[in-house]
Amino acid sequence: MSQERVIIVGGGLAGLAAAVRIAEDGVPVDLFSMVPVKRSHSVCAQGGINACNEVARQQGYSEYQHFDETLYGGDYLADQNPVLEMTNWAPKIIDLLDRMGVPFNRTPEQNRDLRLFGGSLFKRTHFAGATTGQQLLYALDEQTRRFEAEGRITKHEFWEFLWPVTVGEGEDKRCVGITAQDMRTMQIRSFRGGAVVMATGGCGLIFGKSTNSVICTGGAASRCYQDGAWYANGEMIQVHPTAIPGADKLRLMSESARGEGGRVWVPRKKGDTRKATDIPEPERLYFLEEKYPDYGNLVPRDIASREIFDICVNQGMGVSGQNQVYLDLSHMDPDYLTRKLGGILEIYEKFVGDDPRHTPMRIFPGVHYSMGGMWTTYTPGSYEPRARHGVHNPGDAAPVDTEVGRGMELGAHNNMMTNISGLYAFGEVNFAFHGATRLGANALLSCIFDGLFSGVSVANYVRDGAPKSDPTSELDQGVFDRVTAQEQSKMERLLASGVGDSDPTDPTHNPYAIGHELGVEMTAASTVVKTGPRLEQCLTKLDELTERYQGVRLSDGSMWTNQTLSYARAVGDMLILARVIAQGGLLRKESRGSHYRTDYPDRDDPNFMKTTIGRFNPDGTCSIEFKPVRADLVEARARTYGGSSKSKKSEPRQETVATS
Amino acid sequence: MAIAYAHESTADQRRANRTRAVEGRTVLCRVRRCDGPGKAGRWESFKVPVEPGMNVIACLKHIAQNPVTVDGNTTTPVVYDAGCLEEVCGACTMLINGMARQSCSCLIDEYAPLEGDTITLEPMTKFPVIRDLWVDRARLFQSLTRVKAWVPIDGTYALGAGPKESPEVQQDRYDMSECMSCGCCLEACPQFTIEPDEASWDTSFIGAHAISQARLFNGHATGKELKNDRLDELMNPGGVSECGNAQNCVKVCPKGVPLTESIATIGRQVTIRSFTRFFSGK
Ligand SMILES: Cc1cc2nc3c(=O)[nH]c(=O)nc-3n(C[C@H](O)[C@H](O)[C@H](O)COP(=O)(O)OP(=O)(O)OC[C@H]3O[C@@H](n4cnc5c(N)ncnc54)[C@H](O)[C@@H]3O)c2cc1C
Ligand code: SF4
Ligand code: SF4
Ligand code: FES
Question: I need a labelling partner for A412 at 20 to 30 A (CA). Which of A145, A271, A324, A660 fits?
């Protein structure tokens, strides 16, 4: 009997952390990725990674408070136990990354430097220059390469995951491998694995242009969902207020630009064609300053996003009639700007070509992160709360023991396992940690935590769980061939769809055009501001696009390195996932975190402090169910960042610190 | 000032181009196509309407949706490699007007400011073409294995913090650690030649990026445990002595990795290592 292997799909921070931990435990790993793992989307993260640290601790901060902030930020939509365990582990994770050689910024005394980030009064964000995500990813990439050299990890780069291989039905359903395609040779084949870890990242491309990388389609998650995995809180999509619109993608503009005095405006005259610098002061509409005289341009992130969105989309007042407003620094001293904001102004200049010191920047909110993802479960740890705990004040002793093992039980087989046994979800594709919004610099943490902590669970499951009593290596080959054949015929159908026999630029059945329209529709209906009727309309549009997709025509019929095929296939899966996102938004009749419904502007805990669970029906529709959140550690408070006059003073002003 | 189209255009010239860019114009994208390894190459040109702030990737996306050449022939979308679109993953490297650089950070206004200007896209020449602009850079990663570009930690269990480090050392290591494995330095290097046969990768010139990674890890308190292994590898055929000091690499690196400094430092470390090896017989 050959040894059971673990399959990991995705080589971002979550996938690599899992690969290293599982390989270290002596279980061989097959690692699949559409790109060389070192080029995964995690490289984009700039800001940093959160963890309690000694300085903050001596000022009264603790892992418990990090836990509390994460729940509060997420508007209490996350199950509390996994969040507690994650924040308990955070300091250890930083230490480990430090040992791996991550060049964290240092103080003169050679300690790790810290910065202030949104959602906390304490400095708890560790960073490595302006490319923290890149530096963390490289450290894990290096450890992965080390195990690869020792033969413990086998990489399959430029392989695209197509479908999970499962046996059994309902509760007994079990994942025993995957089917994948070599993106160069186009060969499709199945691989056996005692367990499969999905670490495939976010789904920003469903919204067309986002801050995500080009492969973040959500296609992999959608395929698992179509095979029976549940998809949770899909409607929770984080939008960053100040992204730089580009013809190809949206790039982050740090909020420190507003913190340093940036003013947001549009021309008062709709469709004004003059250059920004030619428009005199009285003819500019500083809409944030007018509407929020107290906070002005420094209103919280979600409000800023909503107002900019409203001005452009609802009122049609965007600059040049497009979805963009000015973020203006040109009234300030250029030398001061260079000193304070040099790095980020260079990014703007590099990609837009204008110098923000002299020309107002053009920005618009951009889809940034998906809190929703594949549904996962866990085994709670040993902590049994005697009483509920309310607000935790800085300096108070933590009411919950901040010991590892309190939130979740280390090594339990089901930690971060989906409803299909043997199928796990780690990283951004896992819904578990961020509730209804994510705090800046918590994503990198959750990715690495998943890999390191629940990686142990995967190794244990493969050694002692179903793969031990019923090894996948002994399963009938037919189980695997069936899925290979399914994917083979799906590909052949797409390729035979009439390449070349119609006008390739006709948008009706053009996959790129369908993908583009999907993005435009989802961004308009299902991001910053939502309403019931608009979401209904969106679902109708999805019907139309799905109908058109049935007749999709590829402009490339090649059987060698066919990127059009890969994209067209993903568009089909994106349409299906888009429905979960829109339908979840429609049924969640409240406002919570990033989900804002003008027709239901308040949070409604009795009805909706619940996880949205989407299940796929064979006819392509989605059934949604709401399942209560496990929240017995901390009592839900109102999320009022700066909302009431009382809390204004004590809450950190998120905008004045770097966030991303 | 004349318009600079050539690959040696300076940053100032590119900025000047930007200011004279004509709105509502089209650009002619001349693309080197190739259907696969061993297939003959060909040129195809596409007329692409330029939007403000458009980059090369946006042109390729436009072509994907409208795959019709200037001659009116229907063709296939151009195959290319891309990821972050923020010049941080290294994927989208190609030759633009003859020079290796990232296509995602290449603004059309800087290279083709006037109506009908041409921009030429070709695959890198030092790596085998997979299809069109997409090349196989596996060798670039393999060279990282050759120099054991990692810190040999004891494992992922909680064992406390890593070694302390001064801000100066951190800054030096950070500068090297920003290398995104894009391959520009290899494309520009006269000593680095295309090597399709994997069997000879271990003995072919390793390239500036890997030499710099060796220096990065030799400079880390735990990483230096493998210093001798790295230097031994760099003494072998394909090692640092094959660098001819042309310094092309450092001029083209988009991340400003101090490559010539790294080559000099590793050269010195190798010399010392070979003396010790000679005298100790190890
Ligand atoms: C611009 C930007 C800045 C950010 N800054 C921060 C920050 O400062 N702090 C913070 O905490 N978070 C930040 N985030 C969020 C954070 O970067 C991401 O959430 C995180 O990196 C996701 O990591 P991951 O491992 O889940 O997936 P990814 O890094 O996205 O990797 C996904 C992997 O899956 C593979 N894959 C996908 N589909 C398939 C398939 N079908 N077949 C095979 N392989 C597949 C890909 O090849 C890739 O290897 C930022 C995000 C963005 C966009
Ligand atoms: S200095 Fe060495 S590595 Fe750099 S280009 Fe010249 S020969 Fe190549
Ligand atoms: S050293 Fe510079 S040019 Fe060479 S691969 Fe790294 S980033 Fe690219
Ligand atoms: S796409 Fe990542 S560097 Fe250009």
Answer: A145
